[in-house]
Design a protein that fits this description.
- The chain is of the alpha+beta class.
- It folds into three domains: 7-150, Alpha-Beta Complex (Adenine-n6-DNA-methyltransferase TaqI, Chain A, domain 2); 152-195 and 364-421, Helix Hairpins, CATH 1.10.287; 215-362, Adenine-n6-DNA-methyltransferase TaqI, Chain A, domain 2, CATH 3.90.220.20.
- 34% of the residues lie in helices and 20% in strands.
- It contains ten helices and 25 strands.
- It has helices at 55-61, 110-116, 120-129, 154-194, 267-272, 322-330, 332-339, 352-356, 365-405, 410-420, and strands at residues 7-9, 15-19, 32-35, 40-41, 44-45, 51-53, 72-75, 83-85, 93-94, 98-103, 148-150, 202-203, 210-211, 215-218, 223-228, 239-240, 244-247, 252-253, 256-257, 263-265, 283-286, 295-297, 305-307, 311-316, 359-362.
- The strands form nine sheets. It has a four-stranded antiparallel β-sheet with strand order 2-10-7-8. A four-stranded antiparallel β-sheet has the order 15-24-21-22.
- A hairpin with an 8-residue loop joins β21 (283-286) and β22.
- The longest helix has 41 residues, at 154-194.
Length: 421
Amino acid sequence: MNGAWPLMTLAEAGVTLLDCEHRTPPPADPGYPYVAIPQIKEGRIDLAGVRRITREHFIDWTRRTRPQAHDVVLVRRCNPGDTAVVPPGLDFALGQNLVLLRADGTRVLPRMLRWLVRGPLWWEQIGAFINVGAVFDSLRCGDVPNFRLRIPPLPEQRAIAHILGTLDDKIELGRQMNKTLEDMAQAIFKSWFIDFDGHTDFVESELGPIPRGWEVRRLQELTSKIGSGATPRGGSQVYVDDGINFVRSQNVHDSAFTWSGMVTITAEAAEALRSVTVQTGDVLINITGDSILRTCVAPPDVLPARVNQHVAIVRPIQGVPTHFVHRHLLRPWTKEYLLGHSAGATRKAITKGHLEGIPIAVPRAEKLAQFASTTGPLFEKAVAAEAESRTLAALRDTLLPKLISGELRVPEAEEIVADAT
């Protein structure tokens, strides 16, 4: 049944391309979001770190092109072909090297467009029309309307969009729940270990006033291992489709491990890197490059794993909760402290010694144990929710190409989803 749906260009299917303003407004805080390439992540718009602009600039930048619900944001440069759907209720201005795709509903339902631009045929079109540059590959605005995709009949589109959208909604619900759990844990950490709520008796220290009975200790004293990995020997042959997970800097984000871009290496290559084996409870931190100091806790389902030379393992000793160490590494103060010691001449870098020397105000053992018992259930729920979201995402990504090509029909997909959920 593969190839059952007719091929037509985006222009023939009633999909219009709307270009951005080819200029950048000055930042303003607070203000309206100005979405740029870094905010386009795994099919959605992530406002973390987004530039803000004034209302006047927002009006100016959206006079010609104002995003609306179910539009698709397309990246033309750096990561050409990446897309994200515009959610209802989000007002933002479009950044440079981004364009909007908008379906008029005659041949493609607006809710369906986001799925058509994520299948294999979409990436075949990207490969066919890509312009290879000396620095960045790119797409020309004039070429995109000529992309040819398979377009299901409207009733099929409605059903397909419902199935995939339902899975996506469940994934987003899990993401929101994790954000709530994260905020709760952070609030407890800040109250107990930064603001020292409940304490009235303080003593002076190198970090300023700390509660009496606490002491300033170096991260080295709280850990059994701080060390980075290496590049496995053997060239490209060590990278295989089914092997040991090999964690790189793109997998490590603040408070979130991402599986996008995960590679695996042979058992032999992993054995050679056994000294940087990731263990349960390890904290990971990027130590070089543009993503320097991004940090997260290694998720249980990434094991067994190794890390490369751009990622350091920070392993707390018994009695020191993983998330006590991780929360301190997340602190802006800690990041400023480490960046002040950056050893990279042309590229930011920090060393093992810099990490070992981080000063931390440490309470008595009972307080650390109380923090672990109080926040432990929150982190366990977050890990479970993340695992479920990954399962749902894998199911969605398996069904997507089969549904939009016609290889799999809606009733069969509904049975698969019902069995899985």
